[in-house]
Design brief:
TIM Barrel, four-stranded mixed sheet, binds iron/sulfur cluster
């Protein structure tokens, strides 16, 4: 079989190859994805100690899959003040948080200058905290709001102390599906352009893909290949994050939900197609921690972080509202036969945990 030969010889995979991967049985696919993962990262499972902050859920957009924004199904609008955000950061910093991950809805009352003020103040008070903030969808929204071009917005973000960009807002790049699930949001080519501009400033970012809703496997492959093209030019993506669609409290009609096998297949395929993106993240908030650990044997090498508070996926039904305790993370990684590695936001290794860190073994 041609695809098996290509996998054995570690050749770059094209669109047709990627479709053929979906026809392989899960364990054959997992075998090759795991070989690739192990050749890159051995038995290491990366995570960081981070805090998600979502300053507002009041949004001008109406993405069908979204359960986070305040609307008829989520009638609890909120908007943090600058002081409230600073208080969250201060408390998190005392607990040893190293990264804040700030993403939000599109709300004119939280304009670009509000964020810039918040970021500058955070950097002045907590210079060691890594600020990962503003998705490409937010960059597009804020640029449009202020009649700035993307580069001007990006330069203001960098000046304010934003260290890296999260990968959100990518959803699915196929224009037809995108029009259906999130009409009005940043377009695919704009999302890719913003990340490419960010990378050209010497900065890193991540890239997500929302799957398991109305898209087909062809759309997932197309999505990954568009990311691979940008990465060939810039090298600026640290991680690819396939996000499993959460089914509650939204307006997207989905007939068939993905099971664990399809989720694992997509993670494994992403490891094999995205040969130029270093890390594949099994984002435990959308897969459950258990499946995210299994995914570590199917190509993933990262679990994301402890998160502390999570509002976006949990609004859609995920059991992630209160994050994960560090010890629970360590226990599950070690008892699964892997080595937990705390990393910073740019994947520098901060601490490799030995077996004694496991509560079971102590
Ligand atoms: S996904 Fe983001 S942009 Fe879309 S409705 Fe939800 S908060 Fe708004």
């Amino acid at each position: 079989m041609k695809i098996l030969e290509k996998l054995k010889n570690q050749k770059r995979l094209n669109y047709e190859d990627a479709l053929a991967l979906y026809e392989l049985d899960l364990f054959t696919l997992g075998h090759f994805a795991n070989l690739k993962r192990t050749s890159m990262w051995g038995k290491k499972v990366y995570f960081n100690i981070n805090r998600h902050i979502n300053p507002t859920n009041i949004c001008k957009d109406i993405c069908k899959f979204c359960a986070f924004s305040a609307n008829r199904k989520n009638p609890n609008p909120y908007r943090y003040t600058k002081d409230e955000v600073l208080h969250i950061v201060e408390e998190a910093f005392k607990r040893g948080i190293k990264e804040i991950h700030v993403v939000s809805a599109h709300n004119e009352e939280h304009d670009l200058y509000w964020y810039i003020d918040v970021f500058k103040t955070i950097k002045a008070r907590f210079p060691t905290i890594h600020i990962k903030a503003l998705t490409a969808a937010e960059v597009h929204f804020l640029s449009t709001l202020h009649d700035l071009n993307y580069e001007e917005t990006i330069e203001k973000m960098i000046e304010a102390g934003v260290d890296s960009m999260p990968g959100g807002g990518a959803e699915i790049f196929d224009e037809k599906v995108r029009e259906y699930v999130c009409k009005g949001k940043v377009k695919s080519n704009e999302w890719l352009e913003i990340h490419e501009l960010w990378h050209k400033k010497g900065k890193f970012s991540n890239a997500t893909m929302l799957f398991g809703h109305v898209e087909e496997k062809e759309h997932r492959i197309d999505h990954m290949l568009r990311l691979r093209d940008v990465q060939d030019r810039t090298g600026g993506f640290n991680a690819f994050i396939p996000l499993v669609y959460q089914r509650d409290n939204n307006y997207l009609k989905v007939d068939n939900f993905l099971g664990s096998q399809d989720i694992l297949k997509t993670i494994a395929i992403s490891r094999l197609i995205l040969d130029n993106i270093p890390h594949i993240k099994a984002y435990w908030a959308t897969t459950t921690l258990g499946l995210a650990m299994v995914a570590q044997e199917f190509g993933a090498d990262d679990l994301d972080g402890t998160i502390e508070k999570e509002a976006i996926q949990s609004a859609g039904g995920a059991k992630s509202a209160n994050g994960q305790a560090l010890q629970d993370f360590l226990d599950v990684i070690i008892t699964s036969g892997f080595v937990p590695v705390e990393r910073d936001s740019l994947y520098n290794e901060l601490k490799v945990y030995e077996e004694s860190a496991c509560g079971v073994c102590q």
